[in-house]
Design a protein that fits this description.
The protein is an alpha+beta fold. 16% of the residues lie in helices and 37% in strands. It has helices spanning 19-27, 49-57, 203-221, and strands spanning 8-13, 30-37, 40-48, 62-67, 70-81, 88-95, 101-111, 122-126, 130-136, 143-147, 156-158, 177-183. The chain folds into two domains: 8-96, Ribosomal Protein L25, Chain P (Beta Barrel); 103-183, Beta Complex (RNA Polymerase Alpha Subunit, Chain A, domain 2). It is flat and about 90 Å long. The protein has a six-stranded mixed barrel. Strands 9-7-10 form a three-stranded mixed beta sheet, with no helix packed on it.
């Protein structure tokens, strides 16, 4: 494997820690971070937010961290995101030796057009998005490609079928499913027909009929109207 250049990033010591100060840092375009490990005291630092976003977008794991007049290799060990998963809140950087083997999670990228997806209602489900691997810190792959072009409906690709880069191993079960092709099953809804001779109940109609009945009964409740007595002719 060809030796790759390690990306560099400059950080500044943080004079203070705490959530309120961290919020102020983020508003100023910086992120709170901590460098630790290798039996040295942890160092709280601030790093440029835009630069860190760009490095993480490229799936960068190993960094050459420059602080004051020195630099040291560090592994991006943990990234804390906000509840939306869009903004970085904090970054953990672990000191490493370039000759040591480490365990890291590497993104799995599906490649190829699965033949099973040509079936009506077929879809692909990726059950494993990242794979924990062991390798030299200088040989961590940006991602691991998984070919799914051969998959048919109800077929899957497992960890044991992945071709890992040279020098990269994993302790994950080879039977663990990475991705599979399924068919969307249509749900049949049974419609029950009304019984013969029955009529659907129309609430509005009943209320209306009831109202008319009450209106019709109203005059009767007051008794029958008396006819006016005929006027007597005046006799002179």
């Amino acid at each position: 494997m060809a030796k790759r250049e390690i990306p560099k990033i400059k950080v500044e010591p943080r004079p203070r820690i705490g959530s309120r100060y961290a919020t102020r840092l983020r508003k100023g375009g910086q992120l709170p971070a901590v460098i630790y490990g290798h039996k040295k005291d942890p160092v709280h630092v601030a790093v440029n937010e835009e630069e860190m976003h760009e490095l993480l977008h490229r799936n960068t794991h190993l960094l050459e961290v420059m602080i004051d007049s020195r630099s040291e290799p560090c592994l991006v060990r943990d990234v804390q995101w906000d509840h939306m998963g869009s903004e970085i809140l904090h970054v953990d950087l672990a000191r490493v030796d370039l000759n040591e083997r480490v365990t890291v999670e590497v993104e799995l990228v599906l490649t190829g057009d699965a033949v099973g997806l040509k079936e009506v209602g077929a879809f692909i489900e990726q059950q494993l998005k990242a794979l924990p691997v062991q390798c030299l810190v200088t040989e961590i792959p940006d991602n691991i490609k998984v070919d799914v072009g051969h998959l048919k409906v109800d077929e899957s690709v497992t960890v044991g079928q992945i071709k890992l880069p040279e020098g990269v191993t994993t302790k994950t079960s080879p039977d663990a499913i990475v991705a599979a092709i399924h068919i969307v099953k249509e749900e049949i809804v049974e419609v029950v027909a009304p019984e013969a001779g029955s009529e659907p109940e129309v609430i509005g109609k009943k209320l209306e009929e009831g109202a008319e009945g009450e209106a019709a009964a109203a005059p009767a409740a007051g008794g029958a109207k008396k006819e006016a007595a005929p006027k007597k002719d005046d006799k002179k």
